[in-house]
Design goal:
- The protein is an alpha/beta fold.
- Helix content is about 35%, strand content about 25%.
- The mean pLDDT is about 95.
């Protein structure tokens, strides 16, 4: 059977919020969809929780330690079998109808390099809305130069087609994060659309991996590496 949608999620000591997110994803999957979870050496009950789920659409990748969220996600993406790829974080909660939004945008463009980012409701650690959206928080906008200067692509809000996944793998060394790599590559090789629909609760708490501290020299090195790898990947792309 051909896999239609692959939801790719990473875990690392996410036991506190994982059950709610797992339930919100599985209830939306069809019979020919899958949830691929790559665990990065969790020392809490995350892996046991996943292994205790009897749903056959859940595929668990364990027994590896990356100490890096991007390489952990790359592991999940390499295992994905779907024609449409959706990213998910372990501590968010999907709202009903998220996959319907994904299909509406991506299915007509399944043979192209195409991606979307979806808006979300920002909530606190307890799940209470803060009154802000993800787009407001990160000043979401497309544009290559805009996102090189200040990345607003957020991995957990992204979904894309198989052609973009094939182009993006493997992740090159030295890139800052997977979301900027996927977003910029999508823009340069195809199209990225900001969908206005709010499709999930984006949880902000002290343990978020995406926490940010401005370090100018590191940012310059990251941007230089990103531009170099984008150029190399596009230059090596076979002609259509």
């Amino acid at each position: 059977m051909t896999t239609h949608i692959s939801v790719c999620m990473t875990t690392c000591n996410g036991e506190r919020y994982l059950p709610e997110q797992l339930a919100s994803i599985l209830v939306q999957l069809g019979t020919d969809d899958e949830l691929v979870v790559s665990d990065d050496g969790s020392s809490d009950g995350s892996l046991a929780l996943l292994q205790g789920c009897p749903d056959p659409r859940l595929r668990i990748l364990s027994d590896q330690t990356f100490h890096n969220p991007s390489y952990n996600l790359e592991n999940a993406l390499r295992a994905a079998r779907g024609e449409l790829i959706v990213l998910a974080d372990q501590d968010d909660v999907w709202l009903p109808g998220k996959l319907a939004v994904v299909e509406r945008y991506l299915t007509p463009r399944a043979g192209e390099v195409f991606a979307i980012m979806m808006d979300g409701v920002v909530v606190d650690a307890a799940g209470k809305p803060t009154g802000r959206t993800l787009y407001q928080t990160f000043h979401a906008s497309t544009g290559v130069w805009r996102n090189l200067a200040w990345n607003c692509y957020t991995g957990c809000s992204m979904a894309f087609t198989r052609p973009l996944l094939d182009l993006a793998l493997p992740f090159p060394p030295g890139i800052p994060m997977h979301d900027s790599w996927l977003g910029l590559l999508g823009e340069l090789a195809g199209e990225v659309v900001l969908a206005p629909e709010q499709t999930f609760y984006y949880r902000r708490h002290g343990g978020n991996v995406s926490g940010f501290r401005w370090q100018p020299l590191r940012q310059l090195r990251w941007r230089g590496a990103l531009v170099w790898h984008l150029w190399r990947r596009l230059a090596s792309r076979p002609p259509p």
